[in-house]
Amino acid sequence: MGEDGTKRPRGRPPIPDDVQRRRLVTAAIRVFSQKPYDGARIADIVHEAKMSSRSFYQFFESKEDVVVEVIHAVMGAFLRNLEAVFAATEDPIERIDRGTAAALEIFVGATLDLHALGGAAGARATEARTHYVRRISAMITRELGLAHERGQVAAPPAPAAVELLVTGVEGVGLRFMAEGRSEELRRLHPVLMGLLVRAFVGESGSAV
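The chain above was modelled as a monomer; its predicted structure follows.
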């Protein structure tokens, strides 16, 4: 009985919707890391999340919906990491170094083989990836423009060139991840760093 004379509700309080959604996405990542996409079932995801199928369909219409949500979770985390890198330092080379490291850690830690997706899931996954590649490319282009205004680089590269390089790095990361070569991918950091510095900053510290 409460102080106002009303009865207190029994049982556990309801789990907030955002918490339930995150549990399902986290469970999906674990399931997709253990089974091929085609072999993973919604029943596997809800079992891993310790939730019901009814709860699943409260938030998602299909397995493909979860895949897209996983991409948003992974790529969104990288976007936030990149924003933190840009906020923490103004030196262009240090930004490239830390940004490259953040990108590689995202791919090395990812468990979902996007190359294995087919049909509607593949198309929607590609659309989500493209969305983030363009956002990341726009952010890098904007920051290079600011570096140019500060005299740190001679000239910012064209937006199309930035997007091409970001797409290439993302594609290499996904391919190595799909082939189980995560440690080899991590060791590519100096190589990618060198390529990006030459493309964005130039050999001697000024943009080409």
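The longest helix spans residues 119-149.
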